[in-house]
Amino acid sequence: xxxxxxxxxxxxxxxxxxxxxxIVRDYRTGGDVDDVVELFxxxxxxxxxxxxxxPDAEVPARLAELAAGxxxxxxxxxxxxxxxxxxxxxxxxxxxxxAADRRWDTLDAADGxxxxxxxxxxxxGTIVLDHGPGQGARAQTLVPDHHVCVVRADQIVAxxxxxxxxxxxxxxxxxxxxPSATSDIELNRxxxxxxxxTLEVIIST
Length: 205
Fold this sequence. Notes:
By secondary structure, this protein is of the alpha/beta class. It has 6 helices and 12 strands. The chain has one domain: 3-Layer(aba) Sandwich (Rossmann fold). Strand 5 (119-121) and strand 6 form a beta hairpin.
């Protein structure tokens, strides 16, 4: 008998005949946050991201300003941008399932990407994409150096448990907390190593 089997045998002998104990899993499912929009904006700024809190009607104009003079990918199903305007590039054709010659050339040439999100978390300043309509494929949000994400106020929840409750675990989920950054052993911060160097969040109220 190996050590593992011996330990398990002792455990079984020790609990033999013991009564069943009901395990109460009273997990916290909601947060106590007075203003989720304000807290989310504060936490996202802590990550060195750029935050705009504006009315929904002003979102298209702000996106047009951000896209001026650039090539910003816009995924299928994104409602706030008119892809016929200068600066906006339809992202269809850049997903991994598309032809490789167009896919990577388009991504490499893009200055950034504009997406929506599935849910956002106030307590952690996290944006979650499930890559549904308006959110693009994962490569579209990781390869370009600049990510502009539009978050509706009603998509912001207080904590992680509430966010998980809104998500489909069968979908590919990308959790974003600020721009891509890492540090070496001397704690020198390097940005843009494994994702966008710049994260810009528009909170639509």
